[in-house]
Specification:
76% of the residues lie in helices and 0% in strands. The protein has 196 residues and is mainly α. The protein has a domain of 135 residues: Tetracycline Repressor, domain 2. Helix 7 packs across helix 8. The relative contact order is 0.11. It comes from Flavobacterium subsaxonicum WB 4.1-42 = DSM 21790. This is Transcriptional regulator.
């Protein structure tokens, strides 16, 4: 990487947790310069504006989350075990450094739904990808006889995503894991119900 590319990557990696914690509106240019130790000129020499930093930070946070899920899925063969990875990763977000402030998809979707269309689209695309991943696992599991036929992959994915994100939201707002633990317990029941 060139020096400019390294600086740009440094800015993204350093500010990604800040954007995930404070959101787009809550993160100021001063937050960015303070965290990076760079001047405003250096920030704007690498990004046209705060929007560009925020969009890159979302991509980084989402990429970190996706990588954590993929890594844990790599050694799983059974589709139920693959689906369970989502419960495992999301119930342990605080141990993924850039995700310690919650799910970037949830955080961005809540803040940007009516205020920042580009961020909203990124969150919506992430949710679409999540639907596709779960749907692909369910369809493959049905083909192999490891998931019950008749399970509607899209309906299951919607309920599963909503359950997980709801649990994460409860944990984040209350500071307690009761709601998240209940969501994981219900998620495990959902997985049992689709097993033949």
């Amino acid at each position: 990487m060139s020096k400019a590319e390294k600086t740009r990557q440094f800015i993204i990696e350093t500010t990604a947790p800040i954007f995930n914690k404070k959101g787009y509106a809550g993160t100021s240019l001063n937050d960015i310069t303070e965290a990076t130790g760079l001047t405003k000129g250096s920030i704007y020499g690498n990004f046209g504006n705060k929007d560009e930093v925020a969009l890159a930070a979302f991509d980084y946070n989402y990429g970190t989350l996706s990588s954590a899920v993929k890594r844990k899925m790599e050694d799983k063969e059974h589709p139920i075990d693959k689906l369970r990875v989502f419960l495992d990763v999301f119930s342990d977000l605080q141990h993924v450094t850039s995700l310690q402030y919650g799910c970037p998809i949830l955080n961005t979707a809540i803040e940007a739904d009516d205020t920042h269309d580009a961020l909203r689209r990124k969150a919506a695309n992430a949710i679409d990808n999540w639907y596709k991943t779960i749907g692909g696992i369910i369809n493959a599991g049905q083909d192999s006889g490891q998931i019950r036929l008749g399970v509607d992959a899209k309906e299951f994915a919607g309920a599963y995503i909503a359950l997980i994100e709801g649990g994460v939201m409860l944990a984040k707002v209350t500071g307690k894991n009761d709601g998240l633990n209940a969501a994981v317990k219900q998620g495990l029941k959902m997985l049992k119900e689709i097993t033949p």
